[in-house]
Amino acid sequence: MKKGDWLRADRFLSGENAQCEVPVPLFQQTVSSHFVIGKQLKRPCNPMILEGIVTTVNPDGTANIAPMGPLVDREITRLVFRPYDTSKTFQNLLRTRQGVFHVVDDVELLARAAVDRLDSLPRMQRAGRVEGWIISDACRWFAFEVREIDQRERRGQFTAEVVDRGRLRDFFGFNRAKHAVLEAAILASRTGILPAADIAAEMRRLAVIVDKTAGPAERRAFDFLGDFINQALSAPRATSPAYEAPDAAPDAAPRG
Fold first, then answer.
1. 140 near 167, Cβ under 8 Å?
2. Whole-Å CA distances, 56 to 69, 74, 96, 98, 183
3. pLDDT tens string 34-90
4. CA 57, CA 109: separation in Å to the nearest integer?
5. Does the predicted TM-score (pTM) go above 0.70?
6. How far apart (Å, rounded) are the C-alpha atoms in residues 236 and 227?
7. Domains plus CATH for the chain?
8. Nearest alpha carbon to residue 63 among 129, 104, 121
9. Are 33 and 150 in contact (CB under 8 A)?
10. Mind listing the pLDDT tens digit for each residue in 199-233?
């Protein structure tokens, strides 16, 4: 984005009156595919991406689960989602304009949801303030309502306001293997976009981290993603696998 595409906006974080720069296309208010629902929200100042899982409601009332990394502010009062227009998340947000974002540390759930291979839905409960579902084993959750939608590109932009939140349990903490699984899940979701050689090289690098720092769940999740990637790239493991699975730790549970 060129410097001229940035506008000045008041910092909306509580108690701060300073100015900050946030990316807002100059022509945004003149395009019919961009519209505001209720009050207009300012974009997060100094935003960062927070990886997690978003649940939205399908037309039949069931939950759709998708890993997603929205732009957030430090206090997590605003969320900016950018799902592709072919995704269920996009369609559900466009229809219901609400959902629940979760901070999780369950890498097996994240890995399987990333490639739409959930054997079964996790235990969930109904959200109170919005039409949506809360994953019961999440660390934290943030119910949101969409205030602004931009559909000018294949990746829509849904700017949402957090209207309710809760804490269910402590976050496990920083673990390199968990982060490696997250990176592998992103690679698995991009097998049709990134060069196969690049994916293979990155998976081999991540396998070293998993080998050194993983527990049983992280190993299972990483092996699952490795198998998925190998199949997606049509690369037989016996000849040129995308990665070599690390040796299982003595106490590692068998893959299932």
1. yes
2. 15, 23, 8, 7, 23
3. 455 555 555 556 789 999 999 999 999 999 999 999 999 999 999 999 999 999 999
4. 18
5. yes
6. 10
7. 11-167 (2.30.110.10), 174-256 (1.20.58)
8. 121
9. yes
10. 999 999 999 999 999 999 999 999 999 999 999 99
